[in-house]
Amino acid sequence: MLIRGRDIFILSFLTFVTVIAWVAFDIYHTATMSTIKPPIQKLLSPLPPSIDTQLIEELKEKAK
């Protein structure tokens, strides 16, 4: 039984479409699902970028 060129093209095309759909659904699933629970996510908020120099001086005085 010979496989014609047209049959190979159809098989290749369907395989390509299946792989593209699989990758697209996987990317969508990964983007919408969060593995970080809300209480932990709240604790992961960024720290303020300001440095309290007065507090550092007080700690230096206590260390003496």
Low-pLDDT ranges: none
Our count of helices gives 3
Residue share in β-strands: under 5%
Head-to-tail CA distance between termini: 92 Å
**Rg calc:** 29 Å
| Oligomer category | single chain
Shape: rod-shaped
Mean pLDDT: 87
**Helix percentage:** over 70%
Task: Output the structural class.
Answer: mainly alpha
Question: How many runs of DSSP E, i.e. beta strands?
Answer: 0
How many domain modules? Answer: 1
- Topology as a string of helices (H) and strands (E): HHH
For the largest beta-sheet, the strand count, sense and barrel status come to: none
Task: Describe, in plain words, how this protein is organized in 3D.
The protein is an all-alpha fold and about 60 residues long. It contains three helices and no strands.
